[in-house]
Specification:
5 helices; five-stranded mixed beta sheet; 8% helix; 32% strand; four-stranded antiparallel beta sheet
């Protein structure tokens, strides 16, 4: 009997392991966000033969409609997809046949919602929990309405034991800071560890520095009860409160995880990539470095107790956040294997740490940065720069960097920059000013929330970045901001009691007919060898429409969609504004396959899985469609 039991247990474990290898059970496939699949049926020798398999059309609704930025999940023979607004659908991953659908409640057509949530509908992804003896497997997600929802993974019905009939109200007094009508929601997939689910927040941008808190919270998946809270703006007696002079810490909005958490399940550590505090471009009322904004923070996943932190931007006045989901990997250095984590802001610099201690694996230097001249503003004298790896894309501009793609384009750019005194860029972290200054990168990055991938067979961290720039201008205004309509208040910065208020309009990109005015490449795909800190390879990513034949310019603004790597030696990625979905050889960066999609892949990452038919599929959301590919 013991022999039979042992065989049954072994068979069960083997089946579970195979399913895990074949599936895509989390946004980053694993809690460490490596986005690496062990599948290799599709490989460098046959990827050029890929053909369409099936396609699913997403419902179009909302005003204005927003294309999906979703990454699907595949678990136990079911594909789960989320899309605006608050829709979840379960499908057969081999055919696209719908098994069930669920739509959460939401007033996504209201003017206030459209303003602050950007029409997102919070559906960048889902989380899967395998359940326990008490609770069946669940699909868990948050909405821009400030609700956390748990659905039965098999039926799509809300879990009656979770909160109030499957719904937990996240807009509690503890985080709303006395402002119950301000926006508070979730814009990206939540994360799961054991029986806990972790929530960040998308709180209102640019509506004044005071508002709902960006605190990170853990909830019990069996009941929906709150387990712990981490104050992302430290309170008196907590680590980091001394970086907020006086009472400037009170009721601050921002310092939020609006993208994706990372979990070291083996060690029970949660990594939080925190964004900037409000206001985004002006911080007169918040002097000091402002911890834990723009930081990667490691806490005990079961208690929320602080382990270590690193702030990548001091006193952010550029809206650089830390949107790139941290990736866990091992670094082999000096003959030792070090458990590591890689973190990035929108600035194209990769910081690599021992993920247990927080000690940098490659040195980090505090370097002087330009000081601005806005009255009353506090400017950080230095910012951190990693010695290795080098920056992955452009962070500064001089007239020597002017684009020379065509004589006509160069002449137009020179005329524009000469009228702007060379763009008034003084290097990395050039601050906003009343005269205006060229900010590089823009608030869109650099790097973005779709992040990178890691191939453990090569030790390569791979990510796409863009060389972007935009004029950043602060305009004085003496109006009473409370008399302005909401859409005007959206970019009004500074405390209401201040004699100086500033309006920060989104300045124009420095481009002529869509071509940036600095020398290409305008977007790049880069592989970094984490064992040396060196760039293994870097290539222009995408093509610019109308560029001279044979010139590898990269496609402008092609960082909104991340890569996925596989054991077949491949990288799959959309994101390029030329609308091509591509496959590259991981070892060399050589392009091996591409297909032009009807719609842009914007903010969505590809996945790959093995169907019950024995076929490996590659799937990606392009605009309003889920596209899948397989070998003939």
């Amino acid at each position: 009997m013991r022999s039979i039991s042992w065989l049954l247990l072994t068979a069960s474990v083997t089946l579970s392991t195979l399913q895990a290898q074949n599936d895509w059970p989390a946004w980053g496939r694993d809690g460490g966000n490596q986005r690496f699949s062990p599948l290799k049926q599709i490989n460098t020798s046959n990827v050029a033969k890929l053909v369409p398999a099936w396609q699913y059309s997403i419902k179009k609704e909302g005003r204005p409609f927003r294309v999906a930025q979703s990454t699907p999940l595949v678990v136990g023979g079911v594909l789960y997809l989320s899309f605006p607004f608050y829709h979840v659908v379960a499908m057969e991953p081999e055919t696209g046949k719908v098994l069930w659908e669920h739509t959460a409640r939401g007033d996504y057509d209201s003017p206030e919602h459209r303003l602050h949530s950007n029409g997102l509908g919070s559906m960048r992804g889902l989380a899967y929990w395998g359940g326990d003896k008490q609770t069946s497997p669940q699909i868990v997600f948050g909405t821009e309405e400030g609700e956390l929802i748990s659905l039965n993974a098999k039926s799509g019905r809300p879990n009656p034991g979770f909160g109030n009939e499957g719904v937990v109200n996240l807009k509690t007094p503890e985080v709303m800071n006395g402002r119950p009508n301000m926006h508070y929601g979730i814009s990206s997939a939540v994360a799961v560890y054991k029986h806990l689910v972790f929530t960040g927040t998308h709180n209102a941008d640019e509506t004044g520095s005071k508002g709902p808190a960006g605190d990170v919270r853990a909830w019990d998946l069996r009941t929906g009860k709150l387990v712990w809270t981490f104050h992302t703006v430290p309170r008196p007696g907590e680590v980091g409160n001394d970086t907020w002079p006086g009472d400037s810490w009170k009721d601050v909005s921002g310092a939020n995880v609006w993208t994706f958490f990372t979990v070291d399940a083996q060690r029970g550590i949660l990594y939080m990539p925190l964004g900037s505090v409000q206001n985004d471009y002006y911080g007169m009322d918040r002097p000091g470095p402002n911890l834990f904004a723009n930081s990667v923070v490691a806490v005990d996943a079961e208690t929320g107790k602080l382990k270590w932190y690193f702030q990548a931007v001091h006193h952010d006045i550029w809206d650089y956040d830390m949107p790139v989901p941290p990736i866990l990997f091992d670094v082999v250095k000096d003959g030792k294997r070090i458990p590591a984590v890689g973190a990035m802001t929108k600035n194209p610099m990769l910081f690599i740490f021992d993920r247990v201690t927080g000690k940098p694996i490659y040195d980090i230097e505090e370097r002087p940065v330009p000081k601005g001249d806005v009255p009353g503003e506090w400017y950080a004298p230095t910012q951190p720069f990693p010695v290795k790896p080098p920056p992955l894309s452009r962070m500064s501009f001089t007239m020597d960097d002017i684009a020379k793609v065509t004589p006509e384009h160069e002449a137009a750019c020179r005329a524009q920059f000469l009228s702007e005194e060379g763009g008034r860029n003084r290097g990395p972290y050039t601050p906003p000013s009343e005269k205006g200054a060229l900010m590089m990168p823009t608030t869109g990055g650099g790097a973005e929330f779709t992040g990178g991938t890691f191939d453990p067979t090569l030790g390569y961290y791979i990510i796409n970045t863009a060389d972007t720039g935009r004029m950043s201008v602060l305009q004085r205004t003496d109006v009473d901001q409370n008399t302005l309509p909401v859409y005007r208040r959206y970019r009004l910065t500074g405390p209401p009691e201040s004699p100086l208020l500033y309006f920060h309009p989104v300045g124009p990109p420095v481009a002529i007919n869509g071509w940036p005015c600095w020398q290409p490449p305008w977007s790049r795909l880069t592989a970094i060898n984490v064992n040396t800190g060196d760039i293994a390879w870097q290539i222009p990513f995408g093509t610019a429409e109308g560029a001279p034949a044979g010139m590898k310019t990269g496609a402008p603004n092609s960082q909104m969609g991340g890569p996925t790597s596989t054991a077949g030696g491949l990288i799959f990625i959309g994101a390029a504004t030329d609308r091509y979905f591509r496959a590259f050889e991981t070892k060399t960066g050589k392009e091996l396959w591409s297909v032009k999609t009807d719609e842009l892949i914007r903010g969505a990452n590809p996945i790959t899985y093995l169907g019950k038919d024995g076929k490996q599929y590659v799937a990606v959301v392009a605009g309003t469609s889920l596209l899948t590919y397989k070998l003939p």
